[in-house]
Amino acid sequence: MKQQNDLRSIARILIAASFASCVVQLDLTIVNVALPHLAEFFSASISGLQWVVDGYTLGFAVLLLSAGTLADRFGARRVFILGFVILGATSIAIAFSRSIVELNVFRIAQGIAAALLLPTSLTLLRKACDGNARLLARALGIWAAIGGASLAAGPVVGGVLLSVIGWRSVFLINLPICAVGLIIAYRGIPARMDEAGSRQLDLKGQLLIVLALASLIGAAIEYRNLGWHHPLVWGGACVAVLSTCAFVWLERRIAFPMLPLKLFRNSRFSCPLVFGFLINLSFSGVLFVLSLYLQKARGYSAVHTGLAFLPLTATFIFANLAGGKIAAWAGSRVVMIGGALIAGVGYASLCWLGPHSGIWQMIPGFVLIPAGMGAAVPAMTAVLLSDVDAMSAGIASAVLSTARQVGSALGVAAFGVMVGDGLSSDILNGINLVMLTSAALLLVAALTASITAPEKEEQLANVRTGA
């Protein structure tokens, strides 16, 4: 009877965690197809549109490193419920914003809510499974699959909502998801999940991370409008550098650092971070530019744009599943290298997009990019976690997620510069450079994976074969 009750409790927690994964991942991609509509409604510049995407990823990135500590300090259940409340409230605020600046402020707050939800949902699942590795693996598989499906569905759902209701619905769709997730979490997650721990919150480190990332991303986005000589741009870059240096200095000296710097000495930790940063930088930047290309330069409707993105996003799901099996046979490092090269070829195949390119010319790239990335991402995560102890696994995952979110934000900022003011002619002139740059970045990612220290099994195989 006790075991049956435990399974019911795990099922309720898994459902609540899956709703969290769904809404967080959906918000990463659903907004891209709405960008031209937001530009028209608010008379927004290209930098204003960049903030719509980057505001969310910035808020997400700055709190990821502390989210686990907050859950341990104040109770995972409380933090999880708070995440749903904030995300729902900010979605309403975004939908009824009166200016693009107001909208972007609430998008940052929405990203903070996402940072409270996603890592805490994993904490709740780990606690619920209570050391049962097989049960946890099954739960995480369901959790990841729902997140992946939501990520893939974002552009399609967004396109339909835009065509039928309007741009506000792209944000208000979060309300029923948050409401159901909140009810299940409140009623279904037991109070014992709120037991407070003793981990110390590194407030100074958290503030320095916020300052560093906000200054860096802000300077990158506003560079196009203001120019390098503007105080906000060069000042932001200087603040980012100084804040990062201060953060490193602080983390070396305190007893309970947010980020143990010793982890970076291992190439099997540091190389996957660079790898994840590069693949997210390229993909998020390309998704931003393609949304503008299809709607503003080619005249696609929101629905047609969403459907055009379907192979680009949906292939991720199948590639994720295949990537794990291939990695078990060939080794994670090999899959990282191969996946990066395949995605790079996909970007290269889109280098010749023009004003009259047919959708059939885009499909090979739209399949190769997620096929390579989808296979490489699980392998990258496996490499990063393989050489860290159990106590460091949580922070290692958080650092990887942060690196990827920062890459996403900088990709949108950097590639936005390449399409000028977002006019049809600017987009057509810049999209080829965007794709060529992405292909080059994936080549660098493959080289980074190649210098990662080999797995122990790979080393033994080399010894046996005399390699």
TrEMBL record:
<dbReference type="InterPro" id="IPR036259">
    <property type="entry name" value="MFS_trans_sf"/>
</dbReference>
<feature type="transmembrane region" description="Helical">
    <location>
        <begin position="398"/>
        <end position="419"/>
    </location>
</feature>
<dbReference type="InterPro" id="IPR020846">
    <property type="entry name" value="MFS_dom"/>
</dbReference>
<dbReference type="InterPro" id="IPR011701">
    <property type="entry name" value="MFS"/>
</dbReference>
<feature type="transmembrane region" description="Helical">
    <location>
        <begin position="207"/>
        <end position="226"/>
    </location>
</feature>
<feature type="transmembrane region" description="Helical">
    <location>
        <begin position="334"/>
        <end position="355"/>
    </location>
</feature>
<keyword id="KW-0812">Transmembrane</keyword>
<feature type="transmembrane region" description="Helical">
    <location>
        <begin position="300"/>
        <end position="322"/>
    </location>
</feature>
<keyword id="KW-0813">Transport</keyword>
<protein>
    <submittedName>
        <fullName>MFS transporter</fullName>
    </submittedName>
</protein>
<feature type="transmembrane region" description="Helical">
    <location>
        <begin position="79"/>
        <end position="101"/>
    </location>
</feature>
<keyword id="KW-1133">Transmembrane helix</keyword>
<feature type="transmembrane region" description="Helical">
    <location>
        <begin position="167"/>
        <end position="186"/>
    </location>
</feature>
<feature type="transmembrane region" description="Helical">
    <location>
        <begin position="232"/>
        <end position="250"/>
    </location>
</feature>
<dbReference type="Pfam" id="PF07690">
    <property type="entry name" value="MFS_1"/>
</dbReference>
<feature type="transmembrane region" description="Helical">
    <location>
        <begin position="367"/>
        <end position="386"/>
    </location>
</feature>
<feature type="transmembrane region" description="Helical">
    <location>
        <begin position="137"/>
        <end position="161"/>
    </location>
</feature>
<feature type="transmembrane region" description="Helical">
    <location>
        <begin position="12"/>
        <end position="35"/>
    </location>
</feature>
<dbReference type="GO" id="GO:0022857">
    <property type="term" value="F:transmembrane transporter activity"/>
</dbReference>
<feature type="transmembrane region" description="Helical">
    <location>
        <begin position="431"/>
        <end position="451"/>
    </location>
</feature>
<feature type="domain" description="Major facilitator superfamily (MFS) profile">
    <location>
        <begin position="13"/>
        <end position="457"/>
    </location>
</feature>
<dbReference type="GO" id="GO:0016020">
    <property type="term" value="C:membrane"/>
</dbReference>
<feature type="transmembrane region" description="Helical">
    <location>
        <begin position="41"/>
        <end position="67"/>
    </location>
</feature>
<feature type="transmembrane region" description="Helical">
    <location>
        <begin position="107"/>
        <end position="125"/>
    </location>
</feature>
<keyword id="KW-0472">Membrane</keyword>
<feature type="transmembrane region" description="Helical">
    <location>
        <begin position="271"/>
        <end position="294"/>
    </location>
</feature>
